[in-house]
What we know:
Residues 285-460 form the Helicase ATP-binding domain. The protein is an alpha/beta fold. The protein folds into 4 domains: 1-47 and 155-183, no CATH class; 48-146, CATH 2.40.50.140; 258-460, Rossmann fold (3-Layer(aba) Sandwich); 470-654, Rossmann fold, CATH 3.40.50.300. Helix content is 38%, strand content 18%. Helix 15 links the parallel strand 13 and strand 14. Bound molecules: adenosine-5'-diphosphate and magnesium ion.
Amino acid sequence: MSAQPPGLAQSLSRVVGGKTATALEKAFGMTTVDDLLRHYPRRYAERGTLTELATLEEGASVTILADIEQVTVRPMQQRRGTILEALVTDGQGRLSLTFFNQKWRERELRPGRRGLFAGQISSFRGKRQLAHPQCLLLPDGVDDDPEAIAAFAGALIPVYSATSTVTSWQIAGAIRVILDTLGDLPDPIPDQVRQAEGIIGLASALTQIHRPANDLELSQAQDRLRFEEAFVLQVVLAQRRAEMALMPATARVVSGGPLQRSFDEDLPFTLTRGQVEVGEEIAGDLAASHPMHRLVQGDVGSGKTIVALRAMLGVVDAGGQAALLAPTEVLAVQHHRTITAMLGPLAQAGMLGGDANGTKVALLTGSQRTATRRRELLDVISGDAGIVVGTHALIQDTVEFRDLGLVVIDEQHRFGVEQRAALAAKARGGMRPHVLVMTATPIPRTVAMTVFGDLDVSTLRELPAGRSPVATHVVPVREQPALVGRAWARVREEVEAGHRVFVVCPRIGDDESAPPGDGSVAPDGGSAGEEPPTASVLSVADKLASGELAGLRVGVLHGRMTGEEKDNAMRRFASETGSERIEVLVATTVIEVGVDVPAATAMVIIDADRFGISQLHQLRGRVGRGNHPSLCLLLTEMPKGSPARMRLDAVAATTDGFELAQLDLQLRREGDVLGSSQSGERSSLRLLEVVRDEDVIVRARAAALAIVATDPSLASAPGLLSAIHALVPDEQADFMEKA
Ligand code: ADP
Ligand code: MG
């Protein structure tokens, strides 16, 4: 499968023995030498800093060398489970190591064994202890003979993440066997790049990261391997870019056509400078005979929809069709409604009162009635519909276009690389459609380069003039319960002034066991575990309607409603004024992206601590879209000073989405940043941190673009080619090669 060079591609069972290989595969999914060598130490214990037990102070981070004296296992008193306590000594002092629910350790922590134990000293009932220390037991027969310890551990002792079946020591042992026989390895980083960067070769780096003689060797190894991660990923992206740039697309000269011109003339406002500039960038791309792949990012409310719509109108002017893909049906329906309304007579081609330059806007959703869908499909095939709005499923369906020139993808975060590749199937006569991707929120620069590195990026920096920022306040439910009453009173005032109000809850109803499929539960880390149930849409709506908001018209919106029900609720909330109207909409995060109801002036988010920073900012962006001053209240039970509360304070303190995106990134773990977008690709980032390593990413990107420009097939860099094959699953690699 993978085209690794012989040494690295070798099966582990042939090198470290069947038993160890099986254990490593079970525990970590490792099958090759490469897999094992890329299991870098989690940390290093410095032997020089070994501490004597008698001198340990509470709170200190220590590594100690000690003998196990006695081990006991007993049930816990307050909870279910067991406590394992190992008493260790260095001959001077004593210390207890405690482990909860890790009875299996009894097998290895046997009295008489000696080991290294690392952790932070705490105290329990006046006794100093190490709770859940990292353990590295010395192999039998190795005593305190420093040379023997050094031989097995080096000066910096590697500590690997281990499991109940494979210990850190076993991993170190297996790696040592391999390193001892490691020859020269083909290097994914070509010589000239390595020289320019002043970094060491692969074989040395792997040796030095597992067995560093000193700090310098370690940092050389880390620098090199970190650069490699960034570089290989950037080469994949650069290749993807280069390949897309070679594909054929129909050039569409879009400026100044009748449809776009009429639209611009009828706009009730002037475009922002950013909207004009980005519009010109897009027009330039569309006029080329290779497909555009551009990402437009901007803060919530910066007017991305208009930018996309103008591009679509331009393509229709030039004789083609444009498809707009939304992540959910609610959004597809809403885009259709907004676009139709914004276009007015321009969207009524062939109808009475329709504009002579006009077109039709078709809508395709999964829950449409067959007859309706058939009618819409006919408009798409015939080309009568210049603009087609649907969910992402549209590109997987067998929908045929007469001449699809542009695909606009709304809210990229839920749209993967594979799906972008599937667009090829929509092409006619080998032509690719141009692709414009719109993000919901601003993306920090390093994320844009890493996750969307194969796209060109345009940024809308300013908001339209005259926006008043949404006043945001944290309402601490426990500390100031009276404020909650005030919050609902404010909601009532807004409704009485003729406005609309959103109430957002983390869950749908009280009866669900698993999270609903609409992404409505998305805490950004840290809130797993036993916590009281959060507010749910159904119970909150009931409670409000019969309590604080009695007399107001309260409706609900959530992911378990049918498409028709959701559409109905949105319509009653957005535009209905009669007795059908909904004044307060209690919803899950279905409303998170894109929903545009200018009359909505207030939002109350219950259990706001359950949402991430970017998500809160996105939610808040649903209000303040008209000319009225707007309000967002973040209700939380979290105590002052807690991390969750500080996140909420940050959201209340600024409305700058770029600032919040950066902060969000810093608080998230890497996996969350890259996870969904890198889906399908084995996560290749071990040392590289997108938050911290901006300079590495920038340099790696420049080097990657340069090498792909001079040698697109990478024929001169076999080591690099192998690394790419190992990184990108075969199917996708095939796609890349075919293209
Ligand atoms: P987002 O970038 O969040 O998708 P939208 O495109 O939905 O933002 O625009 C938000 C609101 O601002 C819409 O009601 C839209 O009509 C309005 N808008 C867009 N551009 C301008 C502008 N240049 N001046 C005033 N209002 C604008
Ligand atoms: Mg939008």
